[in-house]
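hi support,

uploading two proteins for the ticket. first:
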Amino acid sequence: MSRDSAHREPLSVRQWDVHDFSFKSNKKHDNEFLVNFKAIVKNPNGALFEIPGFYDGNATWKIRISPTIEGVWSIETVCPDDAGLDGHEIEFLCVKNGNSNIHGRLRIDKKYPRHFVFEDGTRYFLMGYECDWLFAIDMDKKHKENLEKFVKKIKRFGFNHVLMNVYAYDTPWCSGKTSEYDYGPPLLHPWIGGNDNPDFTRFDLRFWKHFDKVMQILHENGVTAHLMIKVYNKMVNWPPKFSDEEYLFFKWLVARYSAYPNLVWDLTKEGWRDPDIKYKVHWLIFLKENDPYKHLVTIHDDDEGYYSGAYDGIVDFHTDQHHEDFHRVALEQRIRKEWPIVNAEFGYERGVKGLGDYTDPASLPPEEVASRALEILMAGCYCVYYYNPTAWDVIRFEDTPTGYYYFKNIKQIFERIQYWKMEPRDDLIDQGYCLANDCEEYLFMIPNPSWNSLYTIRINGKGDDVFRMMWLHPLAGEEFQGGFIKAGLHKIKPPLRWMRYFRAYRQWEGLPVLLHVKRRKDCKLNENSF
């Protein structure tokens, strides 16, 4: 027991919760942000690893930690620049976490490497939501009420993965303050001096203390923060490439945020905008090697790097941006490498006020956005939802767009099937798409159903196997029992009741329908409306 923990019971920290250990120093430094400060951490199994520390104002340095296994942990600080910060030893006890939203770090499923699981083995069906300026909500408020309500709202609709910038300044297509919901430029900036004249050696702690709260709110609600570190078209003044200031920035991010289990590192937003592959590889490797928690790493929309293999063995999954031929392109991307593929930008739903309600002119009806998402999912890949008035610097967090309901329905369907065991098998349907765990479970999609047409599907299995059919309308939230069939070829068509219903209301006529087929022995879908 050390001088810091003698005569006290060890502090208890819940597994995967984030805890700060603070250390004071009376020594004067020219720049506290340049002090070399870290800790050697030992877990209950005896394994040692380093965690970088950071300066947090008021002559205080911190070690931010998130214990991953239950038992007794210890830390010992190391600081060659300041004897007052060196050699502190602390023990603490990691105890069970009772928050049902928290399952540890996100990982690639080793058995099914096209999919994700949490550290505790819980499955993770990634349903993304892009909100680039999420970091800017409630910057001027001590209590982050609007931010917390918004995060809880999108989580309630099934979104569990938020793509956001660490920092962005403004959008050239909607520059300046256009309304109270316009967060570009933001009130606070990462560096002293703001965006116009930043001192890249000194961080504005007001910005980062606010960002801490953003990360904590996401963490407590079980939402993964997919942090896009650099963005090239949002008017940001970045540190010069490979400069000491840029190294300081990346080390700062790792020290301050790697302890959060709900984290994915994404080097860039639209990485193709920087043609220097060596530069991007350098910082991707830096993140992989310096993050003590080994969070997943990716890079958004960089076809040259992905298709050349430059990122193989460095990034953990493919984050794409593609706006046409969604199903075909997703299938082609799967051929090159067996890893998760996320189309993170494929269409933007217009605002709830109608045709002219957008901040960027590229806006679509919610039915089109949801249909595109289904084409991607039916290729065994994942997708990210965009709502035009929350995607960029304008965030109308009070809106409840139609797409929220569509994507909630879609996610509920996929979470009720064993999607991680299913592979694209479009050869099993004559006019549509299919995901199959052959001989066990099938999900067929008819993209543009004609209510007077027949569709041919093939079910593989033994002669005495019985399969149950369930028709699902992912946008209407309807399902209909389709009866039982055996293995072989079958002619099918959507339920007659749907034809009458949708012709009367028109809203969903001609939009995708799904047919779920599962071997009866292992059938678990209920017959109630989802």
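and the second one:
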Amino acid sequence: GLSRWLNIYDEGLMVYGAVRVMDGHIPYRDFWAMYSPGQFYALAGLFRLFGPSIMVERWWDVVVRAALACVVFFLTRRLSSWPAALSVWLLTLAWLEFFGFFGYPIFTGLLFIFLSCLALTEGVRALAEGRSDRRALALAGGLAGVAAWFRHDLAVYAIAAVALVLFAHGLTQPASSATPGVRAADRIRAGLVRAARRLAPYAVGLAVAAGPVAVALSLSVPVNELLHQLLIFPLTVFPRMRQLPYPPLEAENLPYYFPFVAYAAVALAIALAARRLRRAGPDEARALRDVRWRVWAVAAVMLFGMFGFNQANIRSDLIHIPQFFLPAVALLAPLMRGFKPVLREYNYAFTAPAVTVMLLLAFPAVSNYLSVSQQPPPPHDVARAQGAPVDPNQLRAIQFIRQATAPTETIYSGVGRHDRIFVNDVMFYFLVERHSVTRYHELHPGQATTLPAQEEIVAVLERNQTRYIVLSDMFNEVCEPNASCESAGVTLLDDYIRYHYSTVAQYGPYRVLSRWR
């Protein structure tokens, strides 16, 4: 799928943000962004090595997704059998291709989250065997901290899941060390101490990995900007402007509803396994030690996936469910084989539905993969997009701007109307190799539609006497069932453009405007 059409918004945000970083711009201070900085800097480093191009970004994405599938395999192999892990690996690969959206940082974040879960399995295994593997727990925390570089929201979900599991693990009195006559208060106090000892190395690893990045950003960017762009706006404005209703319960929407069933089945399996483990005698408990640590590791993955429903419920489309969907896919493996020693009488009841669901999920992903065209894209002269097709109208607008402006000249890529915005063509900046005149290269509803943002854009257009702007009308009629479809009533930027610029060329939905007064 490397030769798929360019995604002018989501993919454009990543590649152009990386170019800005490569040229010395700092996210949140020099350009507005809601994403964590990791993907911008990772791509900027790759662009430094290999040159800025779509293929560099897409090969990075392919490597990340392949690595993610491999980590899911190793994790599920620890929690289950080879056949089950291999099946999950193949299904994960198929769906990672099916999701599309090259450059989307959720997959890089998930890679480190699953690596963190893999390290956690070693930590809880050591605890089950009476050892204290602080290094594994610290590594799990460190990998969660690295995940925060790419998606801080996913890191929060993972930290909450692991904290709950380690806290519960510490509070749970092992049957082998229970002492009759000890007061309940003393047992609780001892459990809290154990929980703190388990959480401490995880917290240290997290602080070591995420702390320096947080400090560097706070020293480079005003704190109010960091809080607004990374926390306040995503938690308050984004849900209102981008909310999509959850898809109805229909056959084609299986990916949206399968995780609910998977997590419920896993919770039931955990409850049944825990009941059996509590009733096991000392000799049997030692024999079932592997099941005991698997229960805790499975619980951590399950909680992370359940917390991931938060985003899936806000923006309910396919690309916003991987953090909810992929952990459920991974947990199909332990459902099939992971609890077999303690759930022999229930094994078929869990295995048969899990295999059936895997086959149902495989069909749309594999069918899509087989239908992907691998034909070479039409030839064009956009160096940064070689290997991928470019829209003919966008290409002609790019050629016009290149001929009319110097490489160091800034431009503005906007939309047909700025009082109501769906998305803008951010990819245009990357392909034309001209920087945005404003820090708002991403025009997000609820931000670029506000009066302060438009006043800032107008001020910078006026101060720089920007000669050319490009407006795209292709999304003028897009109206989602959320507040982005409503006019903000702010027409300052549109009025300024109408008064100061006139159309000098039009290519389909792309209008090139030149300043005339």
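thanks. also noticed: The CA atoms of residues 501 and 515 lie 4 Å apart.
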